[in-house]
Amino acid sequence: MKNGFLFIIALLAGLVAGCSKSETSKIKLALNWKPEPEFGGFYAAQIGGQFKSHGLDVDITGGGDQVAQMLAAGQIDFGILAADEVVTARSKGIDLVALFAVYQTNPQGIMTHAARGLSSIADVYAHDGTLAVQPGLAYVDFLKQKYTDAKVKIIPYDYSIVQFMADPKHSQQCFVTSEPIAAKSKGGDPKVFLIAESGFNPYAAVVCAKGDYIRNNPNRVKQFIAAVGEGWRAYLDDPKAADDAMGKLNQEMDAETFAAAAQAQKDLIENDDTRQNGLGSMSTARWETIGKQLADLKIVEKPPAAGECFMPLK
Q1: How far is residue 79's CA from residue 27's CA, in Å, rounded to a whole number?
Q2: What residues contact 234, with CB distance under 8 A and at least 6 apart?
Q3: 117 to 81, 121, 188, 260: CA distances (angstroms)
Q4: What tens digit of pLDDT does each residue of 204-263 get?
Q5: Are 103 and 269 in contact, with CB atoms under 8 Å apart?
């Protein structure tokens, strides 16, 4: 009888353990743009089973420019922001913490015509012509402060490459994986200078969560970030399956553009630092720099402590 009772206890324990292993945590991840290669690793983790293998059921949704507000309101578990947005949010008392930085080198740039023979962003500002940028962006303010003797005429960015294709003396802001590829496909001669080359290089496509969510769900956060890292490894090794999946959700981009964008961003995602410390890794020094730069630009009054802005992977 005693042996039978012990058998039943052992059986129940096994069933409980089996159920706990099969349970999945539902997660909401909000992107700050459309399904495109800059988010390829998240979709790779979804369709490749990395999320599932870590016990996660992840719903990837759009958030646009409302991601910080959605995180603050608890509407989502994780969201994608840029590092300067994290610093700005924290300076306003919003407890957002960066967990994984996709882009080690910021993918924003200035696109000009190769035929002009310009060699840097400084050259773009030192020559005549037009430069289309979106007022209010942190890097636009940084460039304005740095290149004070500009000869180029600054005009508002209109979210297209029409004027670029029509005017050989027109330059514009760009995302490495977008406008230059579109211009080249239409026969243009785009040459891109990364904003990072000017000294302003915040991490981009950064996975963030609220501080209290991280404190209350440490294992879930650890599982999610592990799956994200595995997903990005898979995407960098072979992006096609994830690109095909994103292509069904974003039919404005064709397969050739997906492939070209995935290739264009590789060196911005993986570098010597990530090969040593892991994809998505971040450093205190980089966070200190972006905080100081935002304070110098008067975007924040006082930068938050760098160590509070992010959680190291290890």
Answers
A1: 11
A2: 41, 44, 45, 48, 50, 242
A3: 34, 12, 15, 24
A4: 999 999 999 999 999 999 999 999 999 999 999 999 999 999 999 999 999 999 999 999
A5: yes
Which residues, 6 or more positions from 269, have their beta carbon under 8 angstroms from its beta carbon? 102, 103, 104, 232, 236, 279
Give me the torsion for CA of 136, 142, 147, 148, rounded to 10°.
Answer: 60
Residue 154, strand partner residues: 131
Question: What sections of 127-270 are H helices per DSSP?
Answer: 138-146, 162-166, 179-185, 211-216, 218-237, 240-249, 255-269
Residue 127 in 3-state DSSP? coil
- Among candidates 240, 313, 247, which has minimal Cα distance to 282? 313
Give pLDDT tens digits for 165-189. 999 999 999 999 999 999 999 999 9
The tens digit of pLDDT for each residue in 11-20 reads 334 433 443 4
**Tens digit of pLDDT for each residue in 187-198?**
999 999 999 999
**Helix, coil or strand: residue 284:** helix
Q: Cα(184)–Cα(27) distance, rounded to whole angstroms?
A: 38
Closest of 117, 118, 134 to residue 126, by C-alpha: 118
**Consecutive H or E run containing 111:** strand 108-113
Rounded percentage of the chain residues whose pLDDT exceeds 90: 90
